[in-house]
Amino acid sequence: MTMTTPTAFRRPNLPEWQLTVVDAFDVTPHMRRVVLTADNLDQFEYQPGQALVLQVPLSDGETGRRDYTIRAIDRAKKTLSIDFVLHGDTPAPTWARGARPGAAILGRGPRGRTVFNPQADWHLFCGDETCIPAILHILETLPAGAKAIALAEIGGPAHEQPVKSDADLSFEWLHRGSVPAGPGSFLLDRLKSLELPAGSGHAYLIGETSNVRAQRHHLIGRGFTRDRISSEGYWRPGRIGGHDHVED
């Protein structure tokens, strides 16, 4: 009998980008945009909804991997923007608050599977604050005439952002008020009452992992097949860094 040694898991060999901060500013009270450039950014190819893996400085002098969605790219200015939710004193928000022109950070990517499906008859986007950069960027790049519905859960009116799209779009900001972000049925309750269009739709579910899983199960119960749902858990309470591919 031939014995084999298990193959160690290896992360994909993603392209590296030596990024430099050009500007940084607050988009809303809890969302900060960092604008970056790189000498070879003209070679950067991605799909809206994908992310870069940033090597964020940690308090012990090391760096940690953090996935952050690409919010925008300006080919003429050779800049790339990333939005950070300012949700505490964890490493990535701390770095974003202190980012100044000239600061350097290493990025790898792009990566991510939550991207536009051109074969779908219509599109449904659901998520919390962490998904807003991805959802707004995808909506901005949808072709004219595409049919889309978006439900975005936020704390209140101060966290709303301008929504631009050439699509046939229905967009709702859902205000939690005093209810904290995290596991709960706030967005799911609205999804349950949502009338879905006819035809073959594609759902893009992003946010807190348990909420994404509940929304996924609900849509499967309403007739969605698993291949028509892109679902990513961007965060979980108590966890710093990492994300979940929600496929169950």
Protein model, in words:
This is Siderophore-interacting protein. It comes from Taklimakanibacter albus. Residues 1-10 have low confidence and may be disordered. Helices cover 15% and strands 38% of the residues. The chain is built from 4 helices and 12 strands; from the N terminus they run E-E-E-E-E-H-E-E-H-E-E-H-E-H-E-E. It is mainly β and 248 residues long. A hairpin with an 8-residue loop joins strand 11 and strand 12 (244-245).
Q: Which consecutive residue ranges, at least 5 long each, have pLDDT under 50?
A: 1-10
Instruction: Estimate the mean pLDDT confidence.
Output: 93
Biggest sheet: strand arrangement: 1-2-5-4-3-6
Rg result: 19 Å
Blueprint of the fold:
Layout (H helix, E strand, L loop, with lengths): L15 E13 L2 E7 L13 E7 L5 E12 L4 E7 L5 H8 L5 E8 L10 E6 L4 H9 L6 E8 L13 E8 L10 H7 L8 E8 H13 L7 E7 L8 E2 L3
Parallel strand pairs: 7-8, 7-10, 8-9, 10-11
Antiparallel strand pairs: 1-2, 1-6, 2-5, 3-4, 3-6, 4-5, 11-12
